[in-house]
């Protein structure tokens, strides 16, 4: 079982991802609705995995990813993006994300990405 922080400005998206991750047996230890909170919660909790939306208020997911990777180069960050955001996905990998999933989430893709990142 891995510890996870779910980051998305949409409560609905956080709930969807949280349900999928908990169904997989993981523990969602915190949620954040913007990049600034995500960085603060990452520092506090040091989770095994963090899911990160790209477009959020205060600080977007790309900036938050860069800051988290500066703090912990081994951070497992799974970016979440809407269809048609190929450029943002490329930037996410450059920022330090390890994988990405596309919204709306497909259960199988989430399972595969999380399993690959956590080595399970």
Automatic annotation (TrEMBL):
<keyword id="KW-0597">Phosphoprotein</keyword>
<dbReference type="InterPro" id="IPR011006">
    <property type="entry name" value="CheY-like_superfamily"/>
</dbReference>
<protein>
    <submittedName>
        <fullName>Response regulator</fullName>
    </submittedName>
</protein>
<dbReference type="InterPro" id="IPR052048">
    <property type="entry name" value="ST_Response_Regulator"/>
</dbReference>
<dbReference type="InterPro" id="IPR001789">
    <property type="entry name" value="Sig_transdc_resp-reg_receiver"/>
</dbReference>
<feature type="domain" description="Response regulatory">
    <location>
        <begin position="3"/>
        <end position="118"/>
    </location>
</feature>
<feature type="modified residue" description="4-aspartylphosphate">
    <location>
        <position position="53"/>
    </location>
</feature>
<dbReference type="Pfam" id="PF00072">
    <property type="entry name" value="Response_reg"/>
</dbReference>
């Amino acid at each position: 079982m891995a510890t996870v922080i779910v980051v998305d400005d949409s409560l609905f998206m956080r709930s969807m991802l949280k349900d999928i991750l908990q169904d997989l047996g993981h523990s969602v230890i915190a949620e954040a609705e913007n990049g600034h909170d995500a960085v603060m919660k990452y520092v506090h909790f040091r989770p095994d995995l963090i899911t990160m939306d790209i477009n959020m208020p205060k600080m977007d997911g790309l900036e938050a990813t860069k800051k988290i990777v500066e703090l912990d180069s081994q951070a497992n960050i799974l970016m979440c993006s809407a269809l048609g955001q190929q450029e943002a996905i490329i930037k996410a990998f450059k920022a330090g994300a390890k994988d990405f999933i596309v919204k709306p989430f497909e259960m199988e893709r989430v399972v595969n990405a999380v399993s690959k990142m956590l080595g399970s």
